[in-house]
Amino acid sequence: MHPNNDQKKYSLKDLQDGDRDAFAALVDEYSPKLHRLALRMMNDPYEAEDILQETFLKAYQNLDRFEGRSSIGTWLYRITTNEALMRLRKFRPDMVAIDEPVEMPDGHVVTRELKDWCCLPESEFMTNEAQLKLDKAVVELSPALRSTFILRDMHGLSTRESAEILDISEAAVKTRLLRARLQLRDSLSAYFENRVEQLAHE
C-alpha cells in the first residue's frame, strides 16, 4: 500500500488533538511498513527497531506542525528514511556515492561491463538464494541510492512520492534509480551468469 492511502481509522484533527487511540491506530497501520523500510536500509534488526521508535516519537512530538500538505504516510516515510540516512552516514562517513563520476588517475572515466542474464526464467529471480544475493547487493549501495531503490522498487512508491520523501526532484529520483539498478546489475552479474551456465547444462 502506498503511503498516501491513509485508512480512516483516525483523522488529522484527532491526532493533533492528542487522541491516543487515533495515534495507536496510526502506529498499528504503519509499523510493519516502516519497520521493513528501516530494516532494508540498515540491515540490522536492532537499528531498525530503534529507527521505528524514533520515527513515531518524532511524529508524536511534531504533529502540531504537520500541515497536511502531504499524506500522513508520506510524512512518516520521510522521517524513517531521514533517520536511517543519518545513521548510515554516521556509520560510514567515508562512503563514496556512485552519484559522483569515477575517474582513473589518468582522467579516464571507467565504465563497468554489465553482463546479461536475459535468458533466465523469471522463477530464478524469486528463489530464496537470489533474494539473499539481492539483499546483500542493496546493502552495498550508497545511502542515497539505497534509499531511492528501496522506496521505488521494493516498496513500490511512485517517483513523485519518493521525491517528496527524499526531498529531491523527480529527475534526481529517476537518475538515482537508474544508477542503483545498474550497480545492482553489475553486483549480481557473476551470480546470474553462473546460473545461466548451470541451467544450460541441466
Low-confidence blocks of residues = 93-126
Order of helices and strands: HHHHHHHH
* CA gyration radius, whole angstroms: 19 Å
| Strand elements, count | 0
Largest sheet: none
Q: Beta-sheet strand percentage?
A: under 5%
Helix content: 55-70%
Tally of alpha and pi helices: 8
- Assembly type of the shown chains? single chain
The average pLDDT value, as a whole number, equals 77
Terminal-residue CA separation: 40 Å
Structural class: mainly alpha
Shape: elongated
Characterization of this structure:
- This protein is mainly alpha-helical and 202 residues long.
- Helices cover 64% and strands 0% of the residues.
- α2 (20-42) packs antiparallel against α3, α6 packs across α8 (170-200) and α7 (159-166) packs across α8.
- The termini are far apart.
- Mean pLDDT is 77; it is low at 93-126.
Short summary:
By secondary structure, this protein is mainly alpha-helical. It has eight helices and no strands.
Mind sketching the topology for me?
Blueprint (H helix, E strand, L loop, with lengths): L11 H5 L3 H23 L2 H18 L9 H20 L36 H12 L3 H12 L4 H8 L3 H31 L2
Keywords:
202 residues, mainly alpha, 8 helices, elongated
